[in-house]
Amino acid sequence: MTEKIKVICANLIEDNGKILLVRETKEIARDKYNFPAGRLEGNESIVEGAVREAKEETGLDVRPVRIIGIYQKPDSKQENNVTIIVFRSEIVSGKITASEEHPEVKFFSRDEISGLNKKGSLRSSYITKAMQDSDNKQAVDLSFLKILE
């Protein structure tokens, strides 16, 4: 089996105390909820990847303002190594738009997200960990990120 290394850019978007999640339809995560997130493409920075994923999955234009955390999940059984960079992002413009790939895009309260977690309906444990880290102000300014030319 070939080793797969994935870099994922994710957005924690909060409005009025609620957090935006999308429901996924792809086979690997069918009916699981996730932050607006996806794989980094070869020609973009991690900030650009986060902005693109938010637009594709939610219809919203966002601006990442802080890095909440970097979460890694090496999986020797599947020969996968996934690194997820979670940004605290703010809505700049746009209207929430569902799609075939993400038929539900909505803001959830923390209690609702806790309920989804208890039912096993969250895509990954990084979601609750990033929420905790954000609530505990464990984030760094984007100036921490250095883009090399």
Would you mind describing this structure in some detail?
The protein has 149 residues and is of the alpha+beta class. The chain has one domain (4-136): Nucleoside Triphosphate Pyrophosphohydrolase (Alpha-Beta Complex). It contains three helices and eight strands, in the order ββββαβββααβ. It has helices spanning 46-58, 110-118, 126-135; strands at residues 4-15, 18-23, 33-34, 37-39, 60-75, 80-94, 104-108, 140-141. Strands 1, 2, 3, 4, 5, 6, 7 and 8 form an eight-stranded mixed beta sheet that branches. The protein is globular.
Short note summarizing the structure:
The protein is an alpha+beta fold and 149 residues long.
SSE inventory with pairings:
Elements: E1 4-15, E2 18-23, E3 33-34, E4 37-39, H1 46-58, E5 60-75, E6 80-94, E7 104-108, H2 110-118, H3 126-135, E8 140-141
Total of helices: 3
CATH hierarchy: architecture: Alpha-Beta Complex
Query: Kindly state the mean pLDDT as a whole number?
Result: 93
Beta content = 35-45%
- As a percent range, the share of helical residues equals 10-25%
**Count of the separate structural domains:** 1
- The 3D shape can be described as globular
CATH homologous superfamily label: Nucleoside Triphosphate Pyrophosphohydrolase
State the CATH topology: Nucleoside Triphosphate Pyrophosphohydrolase
